[in-house]
Amino acid sequence: MSTTSKRRQGDANAKNEELKPSLWQKAFNSESQWDDKDEFLDVIYWMRQLTGLALGLIWGLVPLKGLLGLILFVAINVAIVYYFFNSFHSVDEEQFGGVSEILKEGLMTSFATFLVSWIIIFSALHS
Amino acid sequence: MLEDSLLIVFISIFTAFLGEGLTWLLVYRTEGYKKLKSQVEKQSKKLEKQKESGTDPNDKNQKKKIERQEERLKADNRELSMTKMKSMFAIGFAFTSLLSMFNSIFDGRVVATLPFVPISWIQGLSHRNLMGEDYTDCSFIFLYILCTMSIRQNIQKLLGFSPSRATNAQGGGLFQPPQFSK
């Protein structure tokens, strides 16, 4: 009897695991609840890396040069993150230690990623 | 030039994986390190929750309790840094030799063209050992440093080797001096 109930419990847990949305499904669902703040900050981090890579590729293709390219990167990167947590998910920033904690999450690494992709694409196409 | 840039990215990926692999072999997989790390993370999260729940400024006992926990956490953080130190020195020495080898291979070579002119105190790095006054010419070391900043951090995060945010927020580490309670 106890073996059967344990098996049923295991099956229920397995079904629950299947029903749990993946992190990226949660990220693109505006109604997601973020009980684990590290999970939300991880989404911000990886989203920033992809944004940095994409902007570097675009800036290199256009090409965009000089200080304007750097300033635009920072502005767009910060704007995307701000829209994501403030409008799309409407999270309470105090839960994460304030707006600045969310806005600076992964910013320097994203900047390095952006510079690498910008420099390589620009050099390959326009030097 | 494109081949040089891509080679530098590849070198950066290779050295990042090599560095993390060696660190895992010598440090991360040891029982002592795992135990200490788990202890530090639990303490950091507990302390963070206590601080977030708010402290009564007149409650001296609660304040003292939090201070004691902070000191214990800093001591554990220092111990954690010490367990990593010897291995990190050895790995650092190996990588310095590797880096100087690559430096000599790429010495004087323009590996990329920068789409911007770096500010003067970065030009020493970006234009290192390059001929001429065109500061959009990029040297090996500058591109390598940028690649490493991006790639190593992301690899650490992907492999789960970076310290938790709670641990970083509470500070501590090897160079924090011990503080004595009043």
What characteristics describe this protein?
heterodimer; A: 127 residues; mainly alpha; 6 helices; 76% helix; 0% strand; B: 182 residues; two-stranded antiparallel sheet; 2 strands; elongated; disordered C terminus
Structure write-up:
- The complex is a heterodimer of chains A (127) and B (182).
- With 127 residues, chain A is mostly helical.
- Chain A is built from six helices and no strands.
- Chain A has helices spanning 2-19, 23-27, 37-61, 66-88, 99-104, 107-126.
- The mean pLDDT of chain A is 80.
- With 182 residues, chain B is mainly α.
- In chain B, helix 1 (2-28) packs across helix 3, helix 1 crosses helix 5 (140-159) and helix 2 packs across helix 3.
- The longest helix of chain B is centred in the middle third of the chain and has 46 residues, at 60-105.
- Chain B is elongated, with a radius of gyration of 22 Å.
- In chain B, 23% of the residues are buried.
